[in-house]
Amino acid sequence: MNSKPKAAVAKLVGLFVMVGAWVCLPLLVFGQGFALPWLESHQEKAAVLMLLAIGLLAVDSVAPIPSTLVIMFLAAKAGVLASVVGSTIGLTLGVLTSVWFGRAAVGRVAPKFISDDELKRLGVGVQNRLSLTLACWRAVPVMAEASVITAAAAGVPTRKIFTATLLPNVIVAIIYSVAAKDSVHIACAAFSATLAASALLWWLLAKRNPAEA
Question: Could you report how far apart the first and last alpha carbons of the chain are, in Å?
Fold first, then answer.
């Protein structure tokens, strides 16, 4: 590999690292307990709590919102069904927020570091690997938001991003909602199992389509 392709790869990696750092920054500054007082103040009103959880999940990519904790809290206080429905809506709105941020902010900054041709190639590559670059990352903190933001910045159509992430959002909502009703230990086990399942799915898809890995 000559220096030019290496430089292009380094720029793309740098873009992804920059996006990941942005997603992490609010949590590092405010901590994971930022959303907890809001949730606790409405825990006796299931409908209000559900709407609040949807709103928090919707801004997960630009605010210090630990989505897993929000889902489990909603399930514990409002019930599994309310949590599955509310969390799915919230996670889906969160994807659309990430798309907006990717286009409005990152998409305008990216050309300063990456050429238009490199950005177009990134967009085509992501579209050809949506199952690997978006769906498999939905259960992974930071990567879930960063992958969507990067895809949007690279020009992947909103419809394709929405379609690729919808079912994974439903699955994540179901897993954490059901697990949270049993115990914290079960929820932690579910979190670990979901990460492992994402990694396994990524490996299987990459093995079946080596060119996409």
Answer: 18
